[in-house]
Amino acid sequence: MQAKNRLPSSGNDSPTSPPSSPRSRSPRYRNRSFRSGRAPQTLGQRLSWIVLSVLLRRQGIFLFAPLLYIAGMLFYMGTVSFDVVPVINHRNAPGSVYRSPQLYAKLRPEMDSDNSSSDAILNIWKNSYKGGEWRPCINKSSQVLPESNGYIYVEANGGLNQQRTSICNAVAVAGYLNATLIIPYFHYHSIWRDPSNFSEIYDEEFFIKSLENDVRIVREIPHYIMERFEYNLSNVYNFRIKAWSSIKYYSERVLPKLLEEKIIRISPFANRLSFDVPPAVQRLRCLANYQALRFFSSILTLGETLVARMKERSANNSGKYISVHLRFEEDMVAFSCCIYDGGGQEKLDMDAARERGWRGKFTKPGRVIRPGAIRLNGKCPLTPLEVGLMLRGMGFDRSTNIYLASGRIYDSERYMAPLLDMFPLLQTKETLASPDELSPFQNYSSRMAAIDYTVCLHSEVFVTTQGGNFPHFLLGHRRYLYGGHSRTIRPDKRKLAVIFDNPNIGWKSFKRQMLNMRSHSDSKGIELKRPNDSIYSVPCPDCMFRVNSTEDS
Q1: Could you give the CA distance from residue 335 to residue 272 in angstroms, rounded to a whole number?
Q2: pLDDT tens-digit series, residues 481-504
Q3: How many angstroms separate the CA atoms of 451 and 429, rounded?
Q4: Dihedral sign, CA of 357, 360, 362, 363?
Q5: By CB distance 3.0 to 4.6 Å, which of 19, 98, 139, 215 could disulfide with 175?
Q6: Distances in whole angstroms, Cα of residue 61 to Cα of each of 56, 67, 69, 72
Q7: Cα–Cα distance between 117 and 63 in angstroms, integer?
Q8: How is 35-52 classified by DSSP, letter by letter?
């Protein structure tokens, strides 16, 4: 019986062809029949035929495809010239470049026309004391001191406030070891270049008297002691103590040597005592910093005179003024390794300043400096323009009186111009005091810093822009005086870097972010000391106690 064809009919009724022979379907015989045609004549044609015949085989495709790909790439590379390297456009991360002048130019028209917040200084600390007010609480001893275990001589290094750290820590250690403290010796530093001694900056008599029931303090080493060491301090045993050493180290290592020698020397002494110490030791720190250390009468008198003059000039704001600690001196800009908009001249100035102050430190082999990363991390000193722009965004207008505490501003004529334009009532110690009033302090950086410290201490608002020991001590001192609240604006410089580098931001958005930053500073005004915090910036609760605690309504 004949089988039916399952394939659809083509429409013709002609009989189907008979199936081909299995031999003719074999690739081997198919190739033979292929070759039976006209044979290629040239060598190139023969190679082409061979490659084509191989590719026609299903097994050959997978074998030769990688080779064909490599051959194609080699052919392409042979046609490309590598003399010209393609240019890759690198996009800087937002906040890594100094573009504040461009932002200022954009925002200035709206900023100048904004009159919505002329009384910002009068109501800035509205959330100050919701958790209750704090008051000073440092108990002085009334007991007679036991016989001394010996003398401690310390060498205080650094600038004004780093030396202050050394003094207070020396008082605490001497009291703890029942030793007699010799008035600390101040190291001369190549950066600060101030040869002043203790009695030329602080009221030495007041210092000794304030601590007489807690720590013995003398002005100099007794002659019978110095005679043992041939009147040469270098013969006295010197302890090289690690930074932030525990009080236990002093009792276990320092005290035995003190009892043996009757005098020891500790040099250098800045930051050589841990912040986490027993209450009795902390009390001595509080007593030294907040009560015993008072500036020498001539410094204090001029400082208080400048405070009175600032309040007189701020009569339109009820005698309230802002103080700003601006760190944009040449050495600070150089040390930061940040890049601004001074071009080639700025680079020459900064390279020279770095070599002058820190020989070879920044040019060591392998050291990589990334200015963009430094700016993004909030480590670049704010320029005067950035400070002014920030304060205007926080609601302070042109009628606000500002006291500027700083050294000599780098390229001051150019960098100070926009700040003076935004705040024409800005003052410095040089503009408030006469040349005759300043002349006794003019060539002494620590004494000049002490005058700035006094004026900043009594301002309604203190603005810190860079960190360091100066604002560190002012934070604590202001908290001690103003019920536990620092009344200080501490901007988030990481956020500022991104905001100042945003060309699309408008005045309203900029102002909203600045007001949020101001509000955050208010909420952080009162803080309680944690174990590793410094009592020099956070005196609550070690040096103060809380009163009038109220619940939020």
Answers
A1: 24
A2: 999 999 999 999 999 999 999 999
A3: 8
A4: positive
A5: 215
A6: 8, 10, 12, 15
A7: 79
A8: HTSPPP-SHHHHHHHHHH
